[in-house]
Amino acid sequence: MTYCVGLRIDRGLVFVSDTRTNAGVDDVAIFKKMHCWTRPGERVLVLLSAGNLATTQAVVSLLNERTKAPEERSATMLEVPSLYQAAKLVGDTVKEVIRQTAPEGQNADAFGASFILGGQIKGMEPRLFLIYPEGNFIEAGDDTPFFQIGETKYGKPILVRAHDAKMSFEETVKLLLVSFDSTLKSNLSVGMPLDLIFYERDTYAVSLERRIEADDPYFKAISDGWSSALKDAFRSLPDFSA
Amino acid sequence: MTYCVGLRIDRGLVFVSDTRTNAGVDDVAIFKKMHCWTRPGERVLVLLSAGNLATTQAVVSLLNERTKAPEERSATMLEVPSLYQAAKLVGDTVKEVIRQTAPEGQNADAFGASFILGGQIKGMEPRLFLIYPEGNFIEAGDDTPFFQIGETKYGKPILVRAHDAKMSFEETVKLLLVSFDSTLKSNLSVGMPLDLIFYERDTYAVSLERRIEADDPYFKAISDGWSSALKDAFRSLPDFSA
Q: Model ipTM?
């Protein structure tokens, strides 16, 4: 499993992904699930991936190969004219990979992968997409300004309750780390370290990129603090009386 | 979907179940998922069910039919000598129902159902079991003194963090209602009203049985209070600094 979140705030976009992959509990490894394409001053695109690792790596390889040999390719992540076209490129690529892997017909269950794509291209607004294994995609709006992929359930309630578009970047990272902490505590297939990217709107450069290790002092403060804050919150409610 | 929890505390056993069944979002209904067998002064057994409604109703019908015509039946919920035998009876019955429904072999995916069974029979300790669609079962211990069936993920983190065997009954109901509130807010297929039973150890009678409607004042106090307590808890944590 995997847990990745992309979240839109007024100030920009924040992305966090875990790094654990597993093919059974006795076959775990660390792989980066966050990929970034930048042309400074013109565009930043961030891709988070969940699902079959062979599929997601093939998709990213194909996207990168296209980046490397532009004269032989018609579309690349650095050349697509819009975020919409970038989402379509990722969707077409994942469909192509799954079709090649399962030649008898697309088998999204076994080889499936989903993606969160966000970023900004000069002259346009920051945008955030969720791309399905079938290759189609949806865009985040004001009512639901975040997407989750992988193990989404444990970390969702706090996102729904505490998200606010006017949040600072610093509060947003706190919110995402609380959401990740709940997920990490409940599902062994989601694991540290985490990767974090903050993109501030209209800068066309990554504002902050950070790997958060298991012993990161801020992450430990959030993880321990959230446990005791939750218990205090629970204690503050009135007991049942029959 | 469904959400049911059975939880063991030092004082006894507490059970809560939702009542929503659905065969698609346009085909929802209210059915009780909590069944109770009592022989006052000698035994109390409570059964919570999740899964295919035809299967769970058939299981309860078979268990009740056996109760009604004991001279033709070898085992009944009111006659089994132990909770272990009661769990085995439920397990055998669900296997039998699934076998009859899917004659080509047991298809637990389509017709599956799982159960939480708890109670006490005179001379023995209160016990709590989780019964799988395959008919086998496990018993709650001191380390994991609760079982959930149905949509278990949203409501699990608070149970894990706040449970304490020394809790009063009144605190336990508060904990279970917080867990149900998180689940109700996140999964439309879990719905009000809720059914609640408290069994106090060594009484061999149901101490409290209550249906909690959507407009129940205590449930509303918990639901509203938990939202704001969570937000306060979140605000109390330090913001990230890059």
A: 0.86
